[in-house]
Amino acid sequence: MSELQKNAFIAITGRPNAGKSSLTNLLVGEKISIVSDKPQTTRNRINGVLTRGDTQFVFIDTPGMLRARTKLGEHMVKSIRTSVDDVDCAILMADATKKISPVEQELIRSFAQNGTEVILLLNKVDLIRDKEALLPIIAQYSELYDFAEIIPISVKNRVNTDRILPILEKYAVEGEHFFPDDIATDRTERFLCGEIIREKILWTMQQEIPHGTAVEIENFKSRTNPKGEEIIDLGAVIICEKSSHKGMIIGKGGERLKQIGSLARKDIEALLDCKVNLQIFVKVKEDWRNRENIINEYNIADKL
Description:
By secondary structure, the chain is of the alpha/beta class. It has helices spanning 20-28, 71-83, 102-114, 134-144, 164-168, 189-204, 243-250, 255-272, 292-297, and strands at 6-14, 46-52, 55-61, 89-95, 118-123, 149-152, 173-174, 214-224, 230-240, 275-284. Strand 2 and strand 3 (55-61) form a beta hairpin. It is globular and about 55 Å long. It starts with 5 loop residues before the first strand and ends in a 7-residue tail after the last helix.
């Protein structure tokens, strides 16, 4: 390795469900951020790390910008605002199938205040048949901000996604790498296991109940079975807001909780590369999204 090292900190911002976490996973080359079609899937800033040669990219996957209606929402909005400070570049991830919203406009105002270099990625272009329809969309965004680059992409279909890293390379600055070169995220395995379980709740449950849930990993211990194989004993607690929600999460005869556990165990075993003994329990914490002590106790969101 040469003595010269470079790094680039890049905030990935946008409205909920624009594809930010999917983009982070694609750029890093591993699944580090959970994905669902529901808003507010991402609650914490998650740093994705990609080291290519002498350059280390740190992608900050932020929660989707929203109007804060709870204490948890306030944490998420604060996380977004602090994430765009002092980065080398920001990505504004926009849904090309939707009109410009107050979310994008607020983010653009924040970029302007900080003088941030911004790359606009118009995602989901695979859903637009007439590609000429993109021209007025690009023009509308261009009137709002002087973007360094505007790229129509589809993360799902890998359209133009190979253009992103070479552009981001331009924003790398000389400096030592902040993270080990062989990691994909600064989040712990314990944190990622909790996020995987929460993702399966989002996948299997409808309406608002998933947003009123959080996951705490209470036990994470390694042992060796008689065959010499490593096994992780993993104990998790799903926190919900109401007793009625607890019953719905567990399901008739425990079927839904079994489904959540089965889906989660498969992904957790792939993450940890060993067998996992997963036990999941459900607790009720009334109106926890407005209770600062619970949010902090369970590290549900980044500290304000």
